[in-house]
User: Which sequence fits this backbone?
């Protein structure tokens, strides 16, 4: 198989209205963004790990943890800015430095529980030309048939003809994008520059466990995600001790 250059981009704006300084707030003993940096650096299929930021403090922390940094202009770091524009900007900057890019993966810092094996799966399907892009999904807790529309005090099923009263086992199953990992070929990324989607062309789903798909957006999310990580760490420690006979 021909070798491909895989660029991991970790987007991290300095501005965060929900939780000030969210991307560098301590999570399980480390700045939140460091968990994504380490996941990328520990994935053998990733060629280069770049943090895209407008913030000097984030840049400093990223460099201290062996990630490269490409500063993005303020117009790509506003509340209304699209992450795909920052991705295209970063790819152009990397290639201006003389390094080719074949595959781009996006790792949002707000998903610290993602698994390296899922990063590898997303990349591998592109390396094997099974897809033009890949993303992580998890099964939804709620069937689309159990969603409702409420308009001016009028209630009706969100999907016309849906029967929300059927047992859960008889309801159609749905999946949610988790936002943990996106992978896309550079060709597809730039093929339609009007597209705002981080997945396009032939899209491959990588299904991840719900407990790894937590996205941190609020203080409560921080608390819940830290408890889940503590559970994983305790479980791994117990398994290692069992294997070693302790």
Assistant:
């Amino acid at each position: 198989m021909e070798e491909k250059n895989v660029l991991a981009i970790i987007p991290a704006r300095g501005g965060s209205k929900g939780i000030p300084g969210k991307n560098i707030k301590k999570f399980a003993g480390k700045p939140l963004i460091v968990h994504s940096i380490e996941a990328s650096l520990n994935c053998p299929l990733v060629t280069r790990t770049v943090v895209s930021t407008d913030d000097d403090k984030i840049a400093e922390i990223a460099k201290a943890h062996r990630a490269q940094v490409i500063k993005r202009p303020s117009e790509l770091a506003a509340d209304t800015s699209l992450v795909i524009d920052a991705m295209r900007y970063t790819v152009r900057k990397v290639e201006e430095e003389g390094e080719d890019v074949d595959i781009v993966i996006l790792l949002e810092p707000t998903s610290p529980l993602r698994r390296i094996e899922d990063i590898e799966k997303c990349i591998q399907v592109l390396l094997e030309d099974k897809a033009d892009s890949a993303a992580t999904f998890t099964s939804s807790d709620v069937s689309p048939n159990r969603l409702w529309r409420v308009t001016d005090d009028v209630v009706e099923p969100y999907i016309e003809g849906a029967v929300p009263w059927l047992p859960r086992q008889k309801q159609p199953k749905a999946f949610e994008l988790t936002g943990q990992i996106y992978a896309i070929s550079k060709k597809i990324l730039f093929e339609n520059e009007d597209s705002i989607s981080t997945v396009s062309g032939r899209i491959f789903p990588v299904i991840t466990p719900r407990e790894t798909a937590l996205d941190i957006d609020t203080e409560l999310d921080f608390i819940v995600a830290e408890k889940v990580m503590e559970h994983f760490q305790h479980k791994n420690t117990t398994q290692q001790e069992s294997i070693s006979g302790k």
